[in-house]
Automatic annotation (TrEMBL), chains A, B:
PROSITE patterns: HTH_GNTR. Signal peptide: none annotated. The keyword Metal-binding does not apply. Residues 9-77 form the HTH gntR-type domain. Gene3D superfamilies: Chorismate lyase-like, Winged helix-like DNA-binding domain superfamily/Winged helix DNA-binding domain. SMART domains: HTH_GNTR, UTRA. This is UTRA domain-containing protein. PANTHER family: MANNOSYL-D-GLYCERATE TRANSPORT/METABOLISM SYSTEM REPRESSOR MNGR-RELATED (PTHR44846), MANNOSYL-D-GLYCERATE TRANSPORT_METABOLISM SYSTEM REPRESSOR MNGR-RELATED (PTHR44846:SF1).
Length: 240, 240
DNA sequence: CAGTGGTCTAGACCACTGG
DNA sequence: CAGTGGTCTAGACCACTGG
């Protein structure tokens, strides 16, 4: 209640702040349902559209999660990843990783992929798109490219596990280091459907390269993570 | 009117896609104004609120930038940072960095800061909050903490330049490496005002520690970057 | 079938800016 | 002062889910 004339900030931000405080105070715990948008409108004396705007703020902060048509729920905290293998990261965090193969194919590389893998004209790639899950909750969509010439027969063998393990075992490749560019994006409709989040949700995109001991790029990948579930730990040496 | 029954996706996403295509095709170049929300509503035969929803999608993608009450404009592409000194990164990218000191003070550390800097009870910190700009465009807000005992007299000397350079020159500290946690956030009202973006815009938060050659943490910082202007390059060794 | 969030309408008033 | 985006209202219909 802003009370006498003091209200400086919009009502939807005041409502969002009230609900955020309740969540941070654990009055509302993860998985608890929030009141419906119609109920919140009544409670705060605003229209449904204004209550909805408040919920949208909390959703983009990752504090709540809409699950139509069941309702809106308090979200779980984020998982902290390092740049590397999803499988290894999940294991490090004591979670159960899983992969669902969406598709695998030998294709022409797009220009970025060709440049990253240093392919000559006409060379093809083995491409995989996989949904990555932890405890059966979808977290990320990985799209991975290997030079086809370097990975014969891999298409039939990619399954639910780690592609890195597979590449190491099949071809004796020693993976040495990775680099990545991280940026904040808005996920497209298809990705949101796969990740079980609403259209237009925020994500973090990693454009990632993995190198062998000789410094050759052996993997080029684009991963999109749910922004509400993932954070990334990184390190940098400053001795230039 | 969806027309001949084929419309699968909501109108606001269709409108956003149309405008996004024009931007990517450079039909609309950076700094060009978009039609106003009222005009777009007329052009696409929808209400202003629906046109507005389309613009909001493009805004959170970083494709456009609202500047009330002047209008909505096509945004510039993002700047690619590495984890490290804002000043050095700007120089590496051929940009002109600048800092505006918002405040500097000796204060009690919060629990996270105390733990990071490994301070004993009662030890204080020197805290700085600075707005970081490139070519006079605000990009990030840095909040930096040093142990007060290790940085005598620094409060008066912090100016427009690099804090790292200052620490190195004043105390002979050798900065060796950094680590950081990156996550996607929604910026609060005050930060948005400082960064000249609208309330509720997305940001990337870095929680950052810098260590000396002996492995002691000498700096703890929380930086928030505009998600529409910044991307981060990171590397990781895989030889565990 | 009741209730949810998703989408959408057709208005309204506001603060603020530039000309 | 005209025009902008910011906020807000009081409704509407939809697809979808769980009981």
């Amino acid at each position: 209640m802003p009370g006498p004339g003091g209200a400086r900030s919009p009502r939807y931000l005041t409502i969002a702040a009230t609900l955020r405080d309740r969540i941070l105070a654990r009055e509302l715990a993860p998985h608890d349902p929030l009141p419906s948008e119609r109920e919140l409108g009544e409670q705060f004396g605003v229209s449904r559209m204004t209550a909805r705007q408040a919920i949208t703020v909390l959703e983009s902060e990752g504090h709540v999660c809409r699950r139509p048509p069941r309702g809106t729920f308090v979200a779980e905290p984020r998982v902290r990843f390092r740049i590397g293998s999803f499988t290894e990261e999940a294991n490090r965090l004591g979670r159960r990783p899983r992969a669902e193969l969406l598709w695998a194919a030998e294709t022409e590389p797009d220009p970025d992929t060709r440049a990253a893998l240093d392919l000559h004209d006409g060379a093809t790639v083995h491409a995989f798109r996989r949904l990555r899950l932890m405890e059966d909750e979808p977290i990320a969509i990985e799209t991975t490219y290997f030079a086809a010439a370097a990975t014969p027969g891999i298409l039939d063998k990619a399954d639910e596990g780690s592609l890195w393990t597979l590449v190491t075992e099949l071809y004796g490749t020693e993976l040495h280091h990775s680099d990545a560019v991280l940026e904040s994006i808005v996920l497209d409709e298809k990705s949101c459907a796969l990740l079980h989040i609403r259209a237009g949700s925020p994500g973090i995109m990693l454009t990632r390269r993995t190198y062998d001991a000789a410094g050759a790029c052996v993997e080029y990948a684009r991963d999109v993570y749910r922004a509400d579930r993932a954070a990334f730990e990184v390190t940098a040496s400053l001795t230039s």
